[in-house]
Design goal:
The chain is of the alpha+beta class. The protein contains 11 helices and 12 strands. It has a 5-stranded antiparallel beta sheet with strand order 3-2-1-5-4, covered by helices on one side. A hairpin with a 5-residue loop joins strand 11 and strand 12. Helix 5 crosses helix 6. It is elongated and about 195 Å long. It starts with a helix and ends with a helix. The C terminus is likely disordered.
Length: 527
């Protein structure tokens, strides 16, 4: 790419060449026009003279006179040939100019170069009595004109103009090269100094000599001042970089500590959820087990009394009847409470095993939601909140039931703890709909207090809670978001109107995408 000096030189050369080219073109056009006018004038004069002098000689059939007239008109170099034709004889006389300029007689009607112009020769006898008669056509003359002279003149003029332009361009280039060196030599030194300053250490670049007393000297002195300032700034930047590296190391350590703390809190939250499940189910099982144990004790005591009566031989019908009634009632109580305890143990076992193992399996969604809600009854029975489940049957998921249980648990307990006060009556609805493309939409809605508008965008952030200091960690919804987005490959959104409850909408595929990376559940929670 040209530098500024080269571009300036090229610009001046182009401008001068353009101006001279326009001027030369106009001069060439004017010269061509003048030559064309002169040629036209010559043609008109030759034809006029021939039409004036030839008719009388041709009338008299004076060949010598005709030849002399034709030879006289052949003097201009533009004429190639003149041929005189008689109306009865044919070619009467002719002259031809050879390529070397010699003029010779034309004896036949051969092809001749140039542009032919034909004119009739009319004879008028001015001395006769019938002078008023019309002129008589005695023949015609054919004159061939050549443009070679005009073309040669124009070509010579073009060569002269081109030579002038080239000479002026050479003179201009030489003048500009000498004059621009006064400006561009100092600029080159300044450029080299700037390049060295940009690519090398500032301490290695020397200041430029500033002994010039013109405008460039002022520029060089400004460059030296900037260089000194840059050296000072670089020194301060190096000191700041050292401080920044120290601060970065401190920050990185703090981030590692914070990450480990967050991982511990997430794991603790998860274990606390499982621990709460264990404690609640254990407390819930205590009642049916106690009733079954009491009923078994009553049945055993009645059996011992009947057995003693049988051994003593004084058994009565009324004793047997009373024993059968006691046995029937005790058996009914034992069976009902044992079934209730077995159902609780089954639900707890399934949910607990799923949360601990993180195994993937196929399961029916409605039954599993019922089991999860059943495992939450120890907490729900202490409130005035009902949980309704609206889920079509036969929706099968190929997914991680433990993670889904944790999602439902966290969302339900989040509604219990944040949407209602202790004595409020409330309702939580878990609704499921089948979507196209083997996706499901689960909506967990409550009719509680709702979420403040300034909190809607932050509810899924870690450590965001409205119950700080009251047992809330701010990790429940963050765990839900991570599980839905990273483990199930779905999405979760929240909407709420203050005072009218909140709604969490989950969308996920029925078949959870396979994670080739093989992330562990804990690693997903820690993300």
């Amino acid at each position: 790419m040209f530098g500024i000096q080269g571009r300036l030189t090229l610009l001046f050369v182009v401008i001068v060449t353009l101006v001279l080219g326009i001027s030369g073109t106009y001069a060439q056009y004017s010269l061509g026009h003048e030559l064309e006018v002169s040629s036209q004038r010559l043609r008109q004069g030759v034809l006029t003279r021939l039409q004036t002098s030839l008719p009388s000689a041709l009338w008299d059939l004076d060949k010598a006179k005709v030849d002399n007239i034709v030879a006289a008109e052949m003097m201009p170099p533009e004429l190639v040939s003149i041929r005189v034709y008689d109306t009865s004889v044919g070619l009467f006389s002719g002259k031809l100019r050879a390529e070397n300029g010699a003029i010779s007689s034309l004896e036949n009607d051969a092809a001749v170069g140039g542009t032919p112009v034909v004119a009739d020769l009319a004879y008028r006898d001015s001395g006769a009595a019938g002078a008023a008669l019309k002129p008589v056509i005695v023949g015609r003359v054919v004159v061939n004109f050549s443009r070679a002279q005009i073309d040669a003149t124009l070509a010579a003029e073009v060569r002269r103009k081109v030579t002038e332009v080239l000479l002026l361009d050479l003179i201009l280039v030489a003048a500009l090269a000498l004059s621009l060196r006064i400006v561009f030599d100092p600029l080159k030194r300044l450029r080299d100094g700037l390049f060295d300053l940009a690519t090398r250490g500032s301490d290695e670049v020397e200041e430029l000599p500033d002994n010039r007393q013109d405008e460039l000297g002022e520029v060089i002195r400004g460059f030296n001042a900037i260089q000194r300032k840059i050296k000072s700034n670089i020194q301060r930047i190096r000191e700041a970089e050292d401080e920044a590296r120290k601060s970065a190391a401190t920050t990185a350590k703090a981030m590692d500590d914070l990450r480990r703390t967050q991982e511990s809190l997430l794991q603790a939250e998860r274990l606390a959820s499982l621990g709460g499940l264990v404690a609640g189910v254990a407390h819930e099982i205590n009642t049916p087990v106690g009733i079954a144990l009491t009923s078994a004790s009553v049945l055993m005591e009645a059996t011992e009394k009947v057995q003693a009566s049988v051994e003593g031989g004084n058994i009565k019908k009324s004793d047997i009847t009373r024993y059968l009634e006691t046995a029937s009632e005790s058996t009914r109580l034992i069976m009902n409470n044992a079934y209730r305890a077995a159902h609780l143990i089954h639900s707890f076992k399934q949910i607990a095993v799923d949360q601990v193992s993180e195994a993937r399996r196929r399961f029916e969604l409605r039954d599993y939601i019922n089991e999860v809600v059943s495992s939450l009854q120890p907490k729900l029975k202490k409130t005035h909140i009902t949980v309704d489940i609206s889920c079509p049957p036969d929706i099968m998921l190929d997914s991680y039931p433990g993670a889904l249980a944790q999602v439902i648990t966290n969302l339900t307990l989040n509604c219990v703890e944040h949407a209602f006060d202790a004595e409020d009556e409330g309702r939580i609805v878990i609704g499921v709909a089948q979507l196209q493309g083997d996706w499901i939409e689960m909506q967990v809605t409550d009719n509680g207090k709702g979420i403040a508008p300034d909190m809607l965008d932050k509810v899924f952030d870690p450590f965001v809670t409205t119950r700080r200091g009251q047992g809330g960690t701010g990790l429940g919804l963050n765990i839900v978001f991570n599980l839905i987005a990273k483990q199930f490959g779905g999405s979760i959104t929240v909407s709420s109107v203050l005072g009218q409850g909140a709604s969490f909408v989950l969308r996920m595929p029925c078949v959870t995408p396979t994670d080739d990376g093989g992330l562990h559940a804990d690693s997903r929670l820690h993300a």
